[in-house]
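Morning run. Coffee first, then this:
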Amino acid sequence: MKRFHVHVGVEKLDASIAFYSGLFGQEPSVVKPDYAKWMLDDPRVNFAISQKCGAVKGVEHLGIQVEDQGELAEVYGRLKAADRPVLEEGATTCCYAQSEKSWIADPDGVVWEAFLTNGESTVYGGNPELQQLASANAAANACCAPAQAAPAPATTGCCG
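And here it is:
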C-alpha cells in the first residue's frame, strides 16, 4: 500500500518536533540532529522535517512512498506518462535511508519523488539538484515568468 510523503524545511528543529508531535499525537519514529520523521498510519503519511542551513523553509517536496518493486514500477510508469522530464536517480542515500527513487516537477514547479526505501543509513545523504527540475518546468509553463536569474555561486559558509 502506498504512503503519501511530505518533507518540510524548518527553522528550529526542536520546536517543530514538539509542534508536530502534538499535532500528530505521537513522537517521531526517527530523530537525528537535523531531521525527524513520523510514519503515520492515520492518515497514512511519511511526514519528515529537516533543518538545513540555507534550505527553503516550508514544503520542500512531496512524494509517494511504495512498499515493493511492483508498486515502484507502477508509480514510475505514471511519472513517465505525466509528460514531464523525469530525473531517475536510482539507488541513493537520502534522509538517513537507502532508497531507489525518481523525481518529477508539476507544471508549477512543485517537486515530487517516487521511492522505495530499502534500509537505514547513518548519514543524511543528499538530493540531486532539484531546483533545476522545478525551475525548468515552472518557467516553461508560466505565461508571465520573469527571466531566470543565474544561480548564485556555491559558498563554503555554514552549509559547507
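The chain has a mean pLDDT of 79. Good start to the day.
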